[in-house]
Amino acid sequence: MRALIDSHDWGNTPLGERVHWPSTLLTLLDVVLNSAQPMFLGWGPERIWLYNDAFIPILGRKHPSALGQPSATVWAEAWTDLQPLFDQVFAAQSVHMDDIGLMLDRLGKLEEAHFSFSYNPVLSGGLVEGLFGVCTETTSRYAAERRERVATERQRRLFEQAPGFIIIMRGNEHVVEFINDAHREVFNSADWIDRTIRDAFPSIEGQGFFEVLDDVYATGRTFEAQGAQVRYRRTPDGPEETRYLTFIYAPLYDDDGTISGIFCEGFDVSEGYLSQRRAAALVELNDRLRAIEDPEALAYATAEILGKLFDVSRAGYGTIDTRAETISIERDWNASGIQSLAGVLKFRDYGSYIEELKRGITVICEDAETDPRTAEMAGALEAISARSFVNMPVTEQGDFVALLYLNHEDAREWSTDEVAFIRDVAERTRTAVERRRAEATLRANAARLTFLDRLGRQTASSEDADEILAITTRAVAEHLGISNCAYADMDEDQDGFTIAAIGPCQDHHRSSGIIVSPISENWQSGIWERASH
Known about the structure:
Blueprint: H1 2-7, H2 23-34, E1 39-43, E2 48-51, H3 56-59, H4 71-74, H5 79-89, E3 95-105, E4 110-124, E5 127-137, H6 139-161, E6 165-170, E7 175-179, H7 181-187, H8 197-200, H9 209-219, E8 223-233, E9 240-253, E10 259-268, H10 270-291, H11 295-310, E11 314-321, E12 326-329, E13 332-334, E14 343-346, H12 354-358, E15 363-365, H13 378-383, E16 388-396, E17 399-408, H14 416-460, H15 465-480, E18 486-490, E19 497-502, E20 511-516, E21 527-532
Antiparallel strand pairs: 1-2, 1-5, 3-4, 4-5, 6-7, 6-10, 8-9, 9-10, 11-12, 11-13, 11-17, 12-14, 15-16, 16-17, 18-19, 20-21
C-alpha cells in the first residue's frame, strides 16, 4: 500500500498533491502503513479513503480501486448503515462497536460481514479534519458463535421436547439454569429458574439427593438411580407424593476442564414400577390367602401387604356394626412408631363419612383438615395418625359388613389406580375370610355330628337311665373340654332343681362358666352367668 499510495495520482482527487497534505495526515498515514492491524483514514469533507496492507482482505475486489475514493463510493452498498457513524465522528464524537453486521459486496455478491471497530475524529484547530479507524473483521468468529448459538438453541429445543425430565444446574450452589416441559409437569417447577435447588425443592431435604449433587460437583463422578423412591410436595402446602424415578446426575465442564454444573435427565417410572409391585403384592396375597386358615390372621396379612406397598402409616380390616356405627378391629398393621387401633371405634368420633360407608361408597380423604366431612374432627384423626385415609366398605348382599382401611399420618394423594387396587384386594380378602369362616363352621358341624353319632352308639346298649345320664354328661364334658357337666330335674315350683347326674369335675377350685340349658318348655331361655365353683 505504501507503493500504491506513492504512485497514486493524488492531483486528481480532492486531497490534491501530497506535497500539500497537512502534517497530521502524513503522520497518521505513516502510523497506518506501519501497522499490522487493519487501519484506514477517511479524510476531508469527501472522507477520502486510505488504508494499509492489513485492510486489503476486508475490501476484497474493491482493492485497489478503493484507494483515493470517497467513503460513500467505496461502501455504497452499506452506506445507509455507515453514514450515521461517519457523521457522528465528523461531529467530533468517537464511535466504538464490538460488533456491527453489514451486507458488503466484496466478492461479486452481497454477503454478511461482521466487524469490531473504533472510529475516532482527527482534530486540528478545533475542527475535524478526518476519521481514523481501527477495525478487525469478526465474520468467522461471529459465524462460529452463531453456529454455536443455533446448536445451543437446537439442543434446548430438543431438551424441551425430550420425553424425560431435564434440569441443568450451575455452580456449587446448584442454581437452576434450565428445565424442560417434562420437568415442569413432574415437579411443578416453572418458577425454579435462577434459584438454588435447595431453595426451589425443599421437600426432598433429608433424602440424600442434595448430598449426591454436592458429591457429583466436587468429584465429577456420575450418579445413576434406578426406580429411586422420592417423596416431595408439588406446592409448599400440598400433600406429599411418593414417586419412583430413574435418573442421572452428570457433571458439566467448562473449556478449561473445570466442573461448572450438573446435568440431570430422568423419567418418572412410578406407574411401571408400581404395576410391578402391585402384581408382586397380588401374588404374595394369593399365596397367603391359600396358606392361612385363621380369618383374623388372613385379614392382618392383607393389611400388612397393603401398608407396605403404599408406604402408609397403618392398614387394617374390621367388622362393622351399622346400628351402633362402630368398627371392631382385632389386629392391624402399623408402620414403625404408629400405635395400633385394635378395639372398637365409633365412626362419629372422626367425622360424618359413615353415611357414605353405609351406602357402600368408598371414602377417600386426602387431608382431614380441609375435607368438609372431617374438618371438625381433624384433631381426632391426626391423634390416631389418620390425617389422610381410604375407607373401603365391604358389602354382603347389600349390607355394609366390613371395612378395609389405609391411614397416613400426613396429607396424601390417592390415585385412581391405587383406589382400584385397594378395592380389588378388599374383595379378595372378604371372599377368603368368608370362605374360611364357612369352612370353620362346616368343620364344627361335622365334629358335632360325629360326637352325637358316637354318643348315640355309646348309650344305645344301655337301658339304665342313670347310666345313660352318666355317659352323656361325661361325654359332653370331655367333648367341650370343660370341668363338669350335669343333668338336673326342676322342682315343681320351678324355683330349684335336683342334680341327677354329673360328669367328672377336673378342678373344683377354679372359677367356671355355668350354662343352664333348659329342656322343659316352661323355660323360655337359657341363662349365662359367672360363678365361683
